[in-house]
């Protein structure tokens, strides 16, 4: 059986190490050089000779390219979050955990590893559908049309160079910053379980006593030491959570907004496009599954961060404090008030990244797919 460290190393590879290969260092630069002018050029043509049909026709890929550039820009920052913050939160080591906690931590890392591997496979499957040529490529991808018009002698070579880099583009799209959030959750999980264990066992040493006197100095001193240890660890836990959380929150919102724009633009294409798009169904299906898996990762990561603070607060509420002296009760109340603060990736006061938001987005995606299918069936009849 693989050890916890092996699963962490696999997740670290998918999150950070893969971008340390020489080819992965140069590909983002090459993509920026290729995609940035194409976006500017396409924007120029849209403004100069604006036609609604052509705008709608080329808009989805245009927004997807913008999304890719955002991913390329953010990738260096998400990598920095891992190296600067996440690897500094290991206040407790896995060796210090009980067998029960080790089993729970291992299970969490197995889930994260399976998710990352599965999402990567789905991403590469979607990539293949974009690499395989279709008759409608030039009607949907403006860059290919530009290459045909201005570089006909190099068209075949340039198009296949771009298609080869789609692997990198889509991997960055599914991993940034979704994999970072999950990797971050995996490391915080150990700290959460260890803190919960300490809180549950704060009275264990004196559990055999039926009655504890307020004059029992040894007992109250022991409780004070244990309680202040938990308070300090919770402060460290909070600081190590809030700093990268604030950075990650900045990056998540643009991804969500652009994703919604892509979904809306795809629906518009099916309303406005002349003729059948049946040859694009495989691409659309593969993209929808990949997008759903990516959004699921965002939702799981966001919910996991919310659960961290809530679980600690719940355990703290269960602590048997009524035998403690006044000083310890005051410290406990202070601790309880601070633990009430929730960790969230928030977009506004009422919207946070969690299961509820994830389900709403997934429902919207599959509803859109249903609308698209029905529209095409009506076109064909």
From TrEMBL:
Its main location: membrane. GO terms for cellular component: plasma membrane. The chain crosses the membrane at residues 26-46, 61-87, 108-132, 157-184, 250-273, 357-375. One of its GO terms (biological process) is signal transduction. It is a multi-pass membrane protein. Coiled coil: none annotated. It is found in: Cell membrane. Keywords: Cell membrane, Membrane, Olfaction, Receptor, Sensory transduction, Transducer, Transmembrane, Transmembrane helix. It comes from the Eukaryota. GO terms for molecular function: odorant binding; olfactory receptor activity. Pfam families: 7tm_6. Belongs to the insect chemoreceptor superfamily. Heteromeric odorant receptor channel (TC 1.A.69) family. This is Odorant receptor. It comes from Zophobas morio.
């Amino acid at each position: 059986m693989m050890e916890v460290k092996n699963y962490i190393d696999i997740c670290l590879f998918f999150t950070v190490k893969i971008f340390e290969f020489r080819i992965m260092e140069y590909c983002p630069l090459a993509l920026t050089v290729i995609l940035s002018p194409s976006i500017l050029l396409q924007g120029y043509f849209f403004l100069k000779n604006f036609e609604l049909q052509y705008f709608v026709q080329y808009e989805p890929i245009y927004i997807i390219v913008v999304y890719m550039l955002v991913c390329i820009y953010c990738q260096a920052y998400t990598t920095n979050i891992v190296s600067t913050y996440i690897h500094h939160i290991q206040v407790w080591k896995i060796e210090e955990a009980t067998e029960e906690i080790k089993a729970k931590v291992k299970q969490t890392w197995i889930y994260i590893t399976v998710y990352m591997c599965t999402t990567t496979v789905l991403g590469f499957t979607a990539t293949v559908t974009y690499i395989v040529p279709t008759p409608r490529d030039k009607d949907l991808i403006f860059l290919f049309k530009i290459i045909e018009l201005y570089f006909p002698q190099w068209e075949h070579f340039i198009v296949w160079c771009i298609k080869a880099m789609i692997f990198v583009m889509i991997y960055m799209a599914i991993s940034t910053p979704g994999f970072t959030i999950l990797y971050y959750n995996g490391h915080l999980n150990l700290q959460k379980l260890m803190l919960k264990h300490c809180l549950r066992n704060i009275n264990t040493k004196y559990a055999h006593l039926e009655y504890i006197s307020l004059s029992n100095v040894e007992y109250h001193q022991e409780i004070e030491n244990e309680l202040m240890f938990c308070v300090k660890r919770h402060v460290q836990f909070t600081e190590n959570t809030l700093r990268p959380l604030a950075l990650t929150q900045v990056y998540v919102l643009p991804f969500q907004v652009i994703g919604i724009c892509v979904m809306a633009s795809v629906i518009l294409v099916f309303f406005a496009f002349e003729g059948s798009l049946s040859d694009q169904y495989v691409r659309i299906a593969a993209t929808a599954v990949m997008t759903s898996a990516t959004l699921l990762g965002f939702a799981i990561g966001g919910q996991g961060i919310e659960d961290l603070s809530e679980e600690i607060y719940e355990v703290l509420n269960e602590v048997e404090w009524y035998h403690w002296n006044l000083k310890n009760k005051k410290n406990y109340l202070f601790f309880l008030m601070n633990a009430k603060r929730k960790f969230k990736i928030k977009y506004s006061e009422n919207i946070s990244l969690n299961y509820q938001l994830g389900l709403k987005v997934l429902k919207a995606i599959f509803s859109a797919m249903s609308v698209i299918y029905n529209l095409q069936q009506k076109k064909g009849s």
